[in-house]
Each structure stands twice: as C-alpha cells, then as structure tokens.
Amino acid sequence: MTRPALDLSLVLSINERTKPLLEGRVEAQGIRLIPTGVHPSEMFWRQLKYGDFDVSEMSMSSLLIATSRGDRTWAGLPIFTTREFFHTRALVRVDAGIAKPGDLKGKRVGVPEYQQTAAVWSRGALEHEFGVKPSDITWYMERTPEVSHGGSTGFAAPPGVTLHRIPQSTNIGEMLIKGELDATLLYLTDKNLVDRSRIDLLGSGKVRRLFPDQHAEGQRFFAKTGLYPINHCVVVRRKLLEHNPWIALNLYKAFVAAKEMAITQMMASLEPYFATGAVGAGIKAAAGSDTLGYGSKAVIDADPLGYGFKASRTVLETIVRYVHEQGLTTEPVKLADAFWPSTLDL
Fold it and tell me: pLDDT tens digits for 85-119?
C-alpha cells in the first residue's frame, strides 16, 4: 500500500537554484510541497517570529544565534541556496574620505540588520582582510525590533560596539544622501514588509562602490581564502523531522536535483564563452547579485555551489567563528546542534 504524500508548506527566495522547486519542475519523494516565493528579509522575520512555513530558507547567522540560545524550533539541512562575496557590496559617499576599506575606521556605517549573515561576512572580511574591527565603526541599523531577525533572537549590541537605531522616519538611503551616514555594508531596496530604503544610491552621484571592480575583489578574496560565503541554508520544523525523519534526506535530494538542473542550464548558456576563452573577468551564475566571481571553467566544475558538509565545512566553520568573534554568540555553535543528524555526513 502506497503511503499518501505528506503536505509541507515551503517558502524560498527566487533564484535559479530554487525555481525548479517553486515551479514544481522538481518534486521531493513522498512529499507534496506547497510553495511560496518571498523576499528573504520578510521570510526570515516571519519564520523566526511566527513560524509560518514548514520548510524554508533561513539566515545562517540567525540559525546559529537561535541555536546558541537554546531555540530548537528549526533544524538546518546543508542546502545553501545563496552565496556571495558580501563585502564587495559596500557603498560609500564620494565625499566621505573613504578611498580604501581601512578608511572605514571612525566612520558612520549603515546596515539593514546587524546580525544578518551578509553583515557578519562583511565585517569578517573587513577585520581579517583589511584590519577594520567592528568596534572601529559607529553602526546605524535600519530594522526595528518588531520586524527584524534580532527581535526574535534577543539581539543586543555586542560589547564594545556602538550601535544606533535609525528612526522609522528615515532610512539608510535617505541618511546617505543627506550625509548623515558615510557608508553602508549592504543596501536593500526590494519591496517587502521589513526593509524601508528605496532610493537609487548609485544613480545619485553621491555614492559609489567601495570596491569599484566587485569581480576582481571577489576573485582575490576567493584565491586567498578559498571561501565562497554562504548566506542561507534550508531549515525544517524540528518536530516534523522528529516524527518523520525521512523528510530530511528526501528534501536534500530534491534540492540537489534542482541545483543540478539550474547548473546544467547555466553551463549550456555559458559554453560559447568557454569555447572562445572569453571568461576572463568572471562568470555571472544568475541574474542580480547572485554572482560567481571566479573566472574559470575549472573552478565551476569543482562545484563552488556545493551542498552538504563535505563541500562546505570550511565555510561553515568560518561563519560559526565570525558569529562568535563578533559577540553574537557566547560560545562557538556546534554544527551538530544546528543541523539535522542524518545530514551531517553528506
């Protein structure tokens, strides 16, 4: 007798590796996924505060922080839906005297949310690559406790860090235009229920990128560190896994199949460039910010987008260390505490 499929609500951000699941082109064995596409800022807030969905993407840093505080609502799966060289997204005012990363010392820097993974990776790169510690900067955070990750994980400014809340009457974009901020680590203008900035800063003439050539800096960083920073993993409601442990590996296989479908399509579109040797400066793996700044077919063949612990253990251990170094956890989190047991050998 065939067991009926288990209905699970699924929420993901929309990118090339998640589309096959959101569009129903890939299915998970024994599971009927009910998909929703939501912007990550809103998704994480809703999951951490309300637990709206059974399966979702989750901020890596917020999962680690919640785990460190004894919250076992979610169990992670080693499925890493987004990666990026986040420090290359920093923006600075052209008149702020910031010619290089080291010039951020003593400056006023905005961030949508202090504990978000992109900010953790950026601060880690600033400290370990350029000698700028979090305590060297005066921070301004846009999100309010009511609609932030930290509002659900008990966030408070780490010791030694100066952090101001941006009033709801303004936002990072407006403050940069007015000269009330010197820079921002990350700038989000996508419409969602959490982020408030909407101004096109790069079109204003007052703001530029800290790293004019993002691809070159991404290549340099990867060549030196071997890190392709993970932003999101996938989580499942832990109670569901306790009653149905088979869900974990079935979901993992489905996400791997979706990624392989996306990579196959990407490689087919890039083959003419490989054939002509025109890949030199880097390869865009997908639209928008989801970029591979590597520059060679050999690196892509090594699967820098790999799922599972074997492919990403160094990156995972690094984000655990950065979260702890930056005062967001009292002790380094054990990955075995954050992720479901049957996935730890993948």
Answer: 999 999 999 999 999 999 999 999 999 999 999 99
Query: CB–CB of 140/162 below 8 Å?
Result: no
Specify whether domain 86-224 bears CATH 3.40.190.10.
yes
Query: Using one digit for the tens of pLDDT, what is the confidence trace for 159-178?
Result: 999 999 999 999 999 999 99
Instruction: Indicate the pLDDT class of residue 269, thresholds 50, 70 and 90.
Output: low
Could you confirm whether domain 6-84+229-343 is CATH 3.40.190.10?
Answer: yes
How confident is the model at residue 265, as a pLDDT?
A: 79
The arithmetic mean of pLDDT across residues 138-149, rounded, is 96
pLDDT tens per residue across span 47-86: 999 999 999 999 999 999 999 999 999 999 999 999 999 9
Question: For every residue of the chain, which 3-state class applies, written as one string?
Answer: CCCCCEEEEEEECCCCCCHHHHCCCCCCCCEEEEEEECCHHHHHHHHHHCCCCCEEEEEHHHHHHHHHCCCCCEEEEEEEEEECCHHHHCEEECCCCCCCHHHHCCCEEEECCCCCHHHHHHHHHHHHHHCCCHHHCEEEECCCHHHCCHHHHCCCCCCCCEEEECCCCCCHHHHHHHCCCCEECCCCCCCCCCCCCCCCCCCCCCEEECCCCHHHHHHHHHHHHCCCCEEEEEEEEHHHHHHCCCHHHHHHHHHHHHHHHHHHHHHHHHHHHHHHCCCCCCECCCCCCCCECCCCHHHHHCCCCCCCHHHHHHHHHHHHHHHHHCCCCCCCCCHHHHECHHHCCC
Answer whether 133's CB lies under 8 Å from 104's CB. no
Burial of 92 (0-12, 13-18, 19+ CB in 10 A): buried
pTM of the model: 0.90
Question: Which tens digit of pLDDT belongs to each residue from 184-198?
Answer: 999 999 999 999 999
In the block, which residue shows the tokens 């080693």? 78
Domain ranges in the chain are: 6-84+229-343, 86-224
